[in-house]
């Protein structure tokens, strides 16, 4: 089955698979939330990591990670960003409002946070060790994988003795997506974006491979798409 219309200015869709964008949300900064936003909102809600006063870690500060920080903070959760890039500390704390930051390649920093997190939202797409992350969880803590790496190594003994869980979560349903948009409007949450013309799509892909984006590109189709007729 092929789906057409991704770069159209107008398409016709089944009403059961539409959501209402609240008037207060700008369309460009709202668009990535229909993917990155719901991908992190859903696990926060469905895995019970949305309770005020809880302490949640967010692994990776990219398109998904920055949305996870925003939603978790709006839910009243204490947030620690965990990253392999120490240069992202300022963005995490000063721009996005995270409470603390851990450079995951610093053993002392990681050790200082052992057994402090109720849960972790892991947004990393590539292979990475889970052992250091599981060590950050409290007893009965939960590590939620949303980044979709092809393969991970699971340290089973740490799960057994700590009653910890590793689970996955892949976006959310239509009702939850609408709930996410309503919550975002209520708390003035949008994605951090860079708007580009469709002529610059290939350049944007090249920059994306280098991690040169904060934090999502959005193509202005309506104003830059040229008609073929």
Automatic annotation (TrEMBL):
The family this protein is said to belong to: Belongs to the zinc-containing alcohol dehydrogenase family.
EC number: 1.1.1.195
Cofactor(s), by name: Zn(2+)
Single GO MF descriptor: metal ion binding
Quaternary structure and interacting proteins, as annotated: Homodimer.
Pfam families membership: ADH_zinc_N
Annotated GO biological process: lignin biosynthetic process
Record field: catalytic activity: (E)-cinnamyl alcohol + NADP(+) = (E)-cinnamaldehyde + NADPH + H(+)
Name of the protein in question: cinnamyl-alcohol dehydrogenase
Chain ranges of the Alcohol dehydrogenase-like C-terminal domain: 63-185
Keywords carried by this UniProt record: Lignin biosynthesis, Metal-binding, NADP, Oxidoreductase, Zinc
Domain of life according to the entry: Eukaryota
UniProt keyword annotation of Nucleotidyltransferase present: no
Pathway listed: Aromatic compound metabolism; phenylpropanoid biosynthesis
